[in-house]
Amino acid sequence: MKLWKPNLKAWHGMCNTRSVTIYKRILRASAIITLSGAVAGGVSAGTIDLSNFVHGEILNTQIPGVTITAENIGGGPDIAAIFDTRLSGTRDPDLEGPAGTPWTGGNLGNANPNLVIGNAIILAENGQGKADGILNFPDDEGSRAAGTLAFAFANNISSIGFDLIDIETVSASHPYAGITFDDGAGGTVNIAFNGLLTRTHPIFGAPSWDGDNSINRILPYTAADVGLSHFRTVSFHLGGSAAITNISVSVPDATTSLWLVLAGLSPLGWIAARFRPSSRS
To answer: Which of 201, 226, 249, 255 pairs as cysteine with 157 (C-beta 3.0–4.6 A)?
Structure first.
């Protein structure tokens, strides 16, 4: 079954073309690292906002402040894409969650089985429909190993936290599976996925690799935790099926351009609302 994709031609027929173009550009500009915490002691915190993307949308440079790249070693394309976990009847039911399917494992899933997560990032298994930038049948690469999703930040970050969906013990134990923290100046640290099991979250407890329809919230890593002064690139080496979401970062200096991007979110949101095209004919 072919999943729904926005009918932009019909939309353009309903709205002023120029207004639609402006609105889409503003939405892309507002799909940035959004403010999720206050400035404290010169450190700002934010979460990469994926909410403005559609199921199957290919990611690369749309989010100011971070470039997302993919390397598929399982036979699929080098594509990072959005997977909407709220959907049901997709090509990958293992990644489906509420509102359709309750989470059935992982520290976050066990604590909040009906928590709606929304969009997550996958390493795509196929590239069907990629010509228009939105995959027809989003599905994560399930080979063991699968490949790498890398997040290269425009500025130094001092910590990163994230949620992991559909991690199985067998894929987490694969020698390829792990995370590489890179400071951009020759310093790199590798952490095996099974090393994440010691990251006991103060609210949700220790992660557990429960596989299908499971979700884990990983206690954020600070640069100091791994002996670096900062992170510039964080790469997730996937041993099999997986999705990543709720990527939160802190920035050491609130005056960096990333902080300026954060500070500019509210005006962008206002402008997007101001330019929202009417759906009336």
So the answer is: 249
272 Rama class: left (phi>0) / alpha (psi -120 to 50) / beta: alpha
Integer Cα distance of 165 and 212 in angstroms: 8
Task: Give every CB contact of residue 130 below 8 A, 6+ residues apart in sequence.
Answer: 58, 77, 79
Cβ atoms of 14 and 281 within 8 Å: the answer is yes
Residues 25, 42: Cα–Cα separation, whole Å: 31
pLDDT, tens digit (0-9, with 9 covering 90-100), for 217-247: 999 999 999 999 999 999 999 999 999 999 9
Interatomic CA distance for residues 52 and 33, integer angstroms: 12
Name every residue whose Cβ is closer than 8 Å to that of residue 5 and which is 6 or more positions away in sequence.
Answer: 54, 56, 129, 134, 136
pLDDT at 45: 64
- Give the predicted TM-score (pTM) of the model: 0.80
- State the residue for tokens 């100046």: 185
Mean pLDDT of the chain: 83
